[in-house]
Amino acid sequence: MTQLKPAEEMPGSFGLPILGETLRLFATQGWGLTKNYQRYGPIFKTSILGKKYAVLVGTQANRLILQEQADHVSSYLGWKVAMEHIFGRPMMLQDGEEHRRTRRLMAPAFHGKAIANYFDIMQTEVNNCLENWIEGSPISIKNEFNQLALRIGIRLLLGVQLQSEVEQVEQLYNTLTEGALALLRLNIPFTKYGRSQNARSQLKAFLQNIIIQRKLQGNLQESCDVLGLFLAAVDEEGNGLANSQIIDELIHLLNAAHFTTATSLTWAMVELAARPQWREKLRQELAEVVGDEPLNLGHLKQLNQMTYFLKEIERLYNPAGVVLFRGVVKEIEYAGYRIPPGWVVIVAQGLTHRMSEIYTNPESFEPERFAPPREEDKKDSFALIGFGGGEHICIGMELAKMEIKIFLATLLQRYDWKVTPEYQFNNYHQLPFQVEGKLQAHISNPALKN
């Protein structure tokens, strides 16, 4: 029987005293772990702000932490330092039965009839966005998609319709997120972090007023937005979500909807610009599935080629981030090591997505890898986890995928485009988040040239 080693004996380095590898890993938003992986292999140690971390890479590690020994780790302890001061205690920062109860109450807003009700709102906002695009005027891609995703999020999540109120929420949310990443958290006026916390207070007050109004209106079961369905949800004992919990969930969901969808759309547009064969393949599929009919929800489910394409975007660009954090609360045994309570585990799904053991030519952009007969993601249920996995898998995943498909379908039917500057996704000296703000689309309307 092989004797297990203490976690301190893992390959890797704790870096500088106190700081550890904090600066490098924050500066690269986790992509810097690639160099550690190449040097040390699929399990190694690191340190962030004096805390000891074990980085695990691969499907076996993903399954262990996210499913098999999920009760040995805490999402709250993994994320609280980075997120609690911004979002409070949404479901993502909950564990065990508390998390399961909250998820059950939230679930009706993200399935079945509710999802179908959101289609028209998404389509309207997408059309409004694209109608403002002008041939010859460069479009700042990430900024455009940030605004689109946030506006769709505000309307779908909060049910806010008045343009003035949409703009008010946008402004507060943007101020909140601008100061959220400040390393120096001085909650005083005139600091970026102080303005952020003030915006959070104003946003919470705004949402509290909306909740009061919605409860007075009644008929919550028939709501066509997430807030109404949250307010209508009750458990088997007749208890619902507390107002404070709903507010935390809404602020966090605004961020998730905004960040993941805008990232996916940005890189989908970049990759399609570089791959005319895939633009034509997706257009041909749209012609066969949609024809001359208006796009509807049923059509989206039949767009198999688009599904494969978007899976490749998820694999390479990890819209929800390249790492997941879990605080260890009960000892974990993995790969010959004992990881004790007090450590934090990093599930590095962004590295798993580029493993040659799973994906053929992992650095190449090949949506075909997801089509029969290859179906490389089906080798293991934890091979593609861009939206997380296990009990904590992203609850809004289907909502995000629907929004992305609506936009791409509408875009492909209307425009051709190129993107500048050109970007190579396998260039680790130019990480995706470092160039997003520089990317511009230049559109042309094929119909005008016929």
Protein traits:
11 strands, Cytochrome p450, five-stranded mixed beta sheet, alpha+beta, globular, single chain, 450 residues
Number of distinct beta strands? 11
CATH class: Mainly Alpha
CATH topology: Cytochrome p450
Which whole number gives the mean pLDDT?
92
SSE order: EHHEEHEHHHEHHHHHHHHEEEEHHEHE
CATH homologous superfamily (4th level) name: Cytochrome P450
Number of domains: 1
Shape estimate? globular
What is the level-2 CATH architecture name? Orthogonal Bundle
In what range is the share of β-strand residues?
5-15%
Helix content: 40-55%
Our Rg estimate from Cα atoms comes to 22 Å
Measured distance between first and last alpha carbons: 73 Å
Q: How would you describe this structure to a colleague?
A:
By secondary structure, this protein is an alpha+beta fold. The protein has a single domain (about 5-450), classed as Cytochrome p450. It has 17 helices and 11 strands. The strands form 3 sheets. The chain has a 5-stranded mixed beta sheet. Strands 1-8-7 form a 3-stranded mixed beta sheet, with no helix packed on it. A 3-stranded antiparallel beta sheet has the order 5-11-10. β2 and β3 (about 50-55) form a beta hairpin. The radius of gyration is 22 Å and the shape is globular. The N and C termini lie far apart (about 75 Å). The model has no long low-confidence stretch (mean pLDDT about 90).
Task: Reconstruct the topology from this structure.
Blueprint: E1 5-6, H1 22-27, H2 33-40, E2 43-48, E3 51-56, H3 59-68, E4 73-74, H4 75-87, H5 96-106, H6 112-131, E5 139-140, H7 141-158, H8 163-180, H9 192-217, H10 226-232, H11 243-274, H12 276-289, H13 297-301, H14 304-317, E6 324-328, E7 332-334, E8 337-339, E9 344-347, H15 349-352, H16 397-414, E10 416-420, H17 432-435, E11 440-444
Parallel strand pairs: 1-8, 3-9
Antiparallel strand pairs: 2-3, 4-6, 5-11, 6-9, 7-8, 10-11
Helix pairs in contact: 6-7, 6-16, 7-11, 8-9, 9-11, 11-14, 11-16, 12-14
